[in-house]
Each structure stands twice: as C-alpha cells, then as structure tokens.
C-alpha cells in the first residue's frame, strides 16, 4: 500500500509517498512559502525516468489546497510521476503536533477525531491549525482515501504523573490541562525501537536515552519501551537550548524583560521562540555547521553557544539516567545528533566518562550510518541512528488502515 505522508506547517508542507510494505520512498519533497510571494515546490522522484532528479517548480500557491494539488500533479505527472493515478494512494498519514491527553496514540481520522484535534489547537496554536488545514484539504481532494493522524505528543503519554506535573496549583492541571506533554514522540519512538533492533535486544528490556538534536531538540528517557520523561514541556520551547528557542528559563525573566525592554509578553514570547537559543547566544548564527566552523576558528561567541548546548545535553542525560536508575543505551539522532561527531566525542569525554562511557573515535567519525560509536568495553552503549519520522507515520498509518 502506498501511503502519502503529509507534514503541514503554516506556510510549508513536507510530503513523502512511501510504499509501506517495502518501506521504499517513491517520492518526496516540500512546498515552501505557501500563501507568500515566491512559493515553490521541490519534488524528488525516486523511481521512473527522472529518478534521483530534484525538480523545482516556482509557481504561486495562494493556499494549502493549491500546494497539495501541485504535489498530487507531480506524483502522477507523465514525465516525472511515480504512480499511474491517484487511485494508487491507499492511505494518508498526517503528522499532528498535539493530541493532548485524549489522543494518546495514532488514530484513523473521523469527525470526532477532527473535533478532538481542533480542541488541541489552544495547546499548539502554531502547529495544530496548520495540521488541520492539511487534513481538510486532503479530505476534499481525496474523500475516499482513509487518513490517519500521528501525534508528536502521543509517545509521551506513558510518562508518570511525577514527570509530567509542574509545581503549580493542581487545579491548573485539572482546569487547563497545564502539564508536560513533550514532542518529537514519533522520532523518539522510532529511534529507541531501532536501537533495540540493531542491538538485537528486547525493546522492553532496555533503558534508553534518545537525544534528538535538530533545530528543535529534545531528549527522552525510554524505559521498558515506554517514554518516562522528556525535556520539552507544555510547549516545544521548553527543555534544551535549541536553534532559536531558549529552553528552560526562570519564569520570572519574562516579567523582568517586559519592564526592562518595554515589550509586551507576546513580544517577549516571540523572542524566546525565535531569537534565543544558539541564535541568541552566538549573535545571529543558527545553523550548526556555521557554529562548528566558528568553533574551529576559535570564535568566542560560537564556542560559548556550543558550550551551553553541550552542557544542556550532557546534564539532561545525567538527569534521565537518574530517572531510570541507570541507562543501557544513549542514542544521538536528527541533523546535529547525526552529523556532530566532534560534539558527540566532546560530550562523551567531558561529561560521561564517570558512567564508564568510552568512544571509538573511528566509528564516531562515520556519518550517515546507523552505528554503535562506543567501544565494546564501554559501560553504556552509545549509538548514532538516523531518525525517520515519515517512515514511522507510514507504518502507523498502514497498521491502522489494514485493521
Ligand atoms: P529540524 O527538523 O528541527 O529543522 P534537523 O534535524 O533537520 O532539524 O537538523 C537541522 C540542524 O542539523 C541544523 O543546525 C544543521 O546545521 C544540522 N546539520 C544538518 N546536516 C549537517 C551536517 N552534514 N553537518 C553538520 N550539521 C548538520
């Protein structure tokens, strides 16, 4: 069955068409600047005459309906299409940011689920409304194709109360559902399972810590196959210092800045989300490759940003080793986790040698492969695994649609 995987943002849309039986990606790409001048679609077919090409079409996309229409046209295009007709799409899997407490696992989308996702818009105002647009547009264009929602929060619904409750008046939880939710669940679930598979150990037997380090970054403690704690919180701004997000800060800072900078709470919030983290610390750099280059050249700001980033990761992993009373496996994943070999080495050597962790330098230098980077006598196995949220969404979609 071919599953069309859709990840709809407010002005962008990432998509993949995956043969869910063979797990082969047939085509993938993204639409950028939807509703903004200069919109374009990037389309990469992986079979047919133009297999391996990167096709970029600049064309106005006033809204998401146009964008999805263009993607579908590409998929069936005579020259570079990968399927004969849209009938060959058996199901659609949607990435949805927030499922709240009610949507604790992937579900087939019906009217009631749509209502539940709508209710979660309040909790994820930047993401859920865009995800809903994607769902509605696909339903309009392909009304008979079953659709599944896969939630970023779902994997973390197994967290115990002690991990998800904040130290706030309890009624804020009962009245407003203020609690830690956590995000990147699809990635943490995929990567922790894959680690067990590679190590040939039962998933339920392991204590694993996954470090998902991309522009957005989070760490998750997975014990006996269940998420027991994670660093993002009520929203994805919490936890680690990230590309542009501040991570955990003292809440009193917001009030203080409102006064000092003569800004509104909303404006400060925007700064915490978009102008903080590595970007804020380095004075305007956000791409990890630029930070790494700066560090190699001895740039003070880059070294500072890198130090804070690594310290955040190292200490959070220490906390989660405590949360699980031990750790068997630590996995690095996502753009920075998969490519930052020097960073991985530095973290392991500077902060984790007390845990008996030893790194094999040669294996650590290998990029683009799922690999164990610790030595055989290391007390904890350290790995690098490429995340694949789209494949996970395709798997979940096929499983539910086949039921
Ligand atoms: P997100 O999905 O949150 O946007 P990604 O997982 O794509 O994030 O990661 C983006 C980050 O990964 C960027 O900071 C980028 O610099 C870094 N990255 C991607 N490829 C490489 C590479 N080859 N070497 C070093 N860093 C990389």
TrEMBL record:
<keyword id="KW-0460">Magnesium</keyword>
<comment type="pathway">
    <text>Metabolic intermediate biosynthesis; acetyl-CoA biosynthesis; acetyl-CoA from acetate: step 1/2.</text>
</comment>
<keyword id="KW-0808">Transferase</keyword>
<feature type="binding site">
    <location>
        <begin position="287"/>
        <end position="289"/>
    </location>
    <ligand>
        <name>ATP</name>
    </ligand>
</feature>
<keyword id="KW-0418">Kinase</keyword>
<protein>
    <recommendedName>
        <fullName>Acetate kinase</fullName>
        <ecNumber>2.7.2.1</ecNumber>
    </recommendedName>
</protein>
<dbReference type="GO" id="GO:0005737">
    <property type="term" value="C:cytoplasm"/>
</dbReference>
<keyword id="KW-0067">ATP-binding</keyword>
<keyword id="KW-0547">Nucleotide-binding</keyword>
<feature type="site" description="Transition state stabilizer">
    <location>
        <position position="245"/>
    </location>
</feature>
<feature type="binding site">
    <location>
        <begin position="212"/>
        <end position="216"/>
    </location>
    <ligand>
        <name>ATP</name>
    </ligand>
</feature>
<dbReference type="GO" id="GO:0006085">
    <property type="term" value="P:acetyl-CoA biosynthetic process"/>
</dbReference>
<comment type="subunit">
    <text>Homodimer.</text>
</comment>
<keyword id="KW-0479">Metal-binding</keyword>
<feature type="active site" description="Proton donor/acceptor">
    <location>
        <position position="152"/>
    </location>
</feature>
<comment type="function">
    <text>Catalyzes the formation of acetyl phosphate from acetate and ATP. Can also catalyze the reverse reaction.</text>
</comment>
<comment type="similarity">
    <text>Belongs to the acetokinase family.</text>
</comment>
<feature type="binding site">
    <location>
        <position position="14"/>
    </location>
    <ligand>
        <name>ATP</name>
    </ligand>
</feature>
<dbReference type="GO" id="GO:0006083">
    <property type="term" value="P:acetate metabolic process"/>
</dbReference>
<dbReference type="InterPro" id="IPR023865">
    <property type="entry name" value="Aliphatic_acid_kinase_CS"/>
</dbReference>
<dbReference type="Pfam" id="PF00871">
    <property type="entry name" value="Acetate_kinase"/>
</dbReference>
<dbReference type="GO" id="GO:0008776">
    <property type="term" value="F:acetate kinase activity"/>
</dbReference>
<feature type="site" description="Transition state stabilizer">
    <location>
        <position position="184"/>
    </location>
</feature>
<feature type="binding site">
    <location>
        <position position="389"/>
    </location>
    <ligand>
        <name>Mg(2+)</name>
    </ligand>
</feature>
<dbReference type="GO" id="GO:0000287">
    <property type="term" value="F:magnesium ion binding"/>
</dbReference>
<feature type="binding site">
    <location>
        <begin position="335"/>
        <end position="339"/>
    </location>
    <ligand>
        <name>ATP</name>
    </ligand>
</feature>
<feature type="binding site">
    <location>
        <position position="7"/>
    </location>
    <ligand>
        <name>Mg(2+)</name>
    </ligand>
</feature>
<feature type="binding site">
    <location>
        <position position="95"/>
    </location>
    <ligand>
        <name>substrate</name>
    </ligand>
</feature>
<dbReference type="InterPro" id="IPR000890">
    <property type="entry name" value="Aliphatic_acid_kin_short-chain"/>
</dbReference>
<dbReference type="InterPro" id="IPR004372">
    <property type="entry name" value="Ac/propionate_kinase"/>
</dbReference>
<keyword id="KW-0963">Cytoplasm</keyword>
<dbReference type="GO" id="GO:0005524">
    <property type="term" value="F:ATP binding"/>
</dbReference>
<dbReference type="InterPro" id="IPR043129">
    <property type="entry name" value="ATPase_NBD"/>
</dbReference>
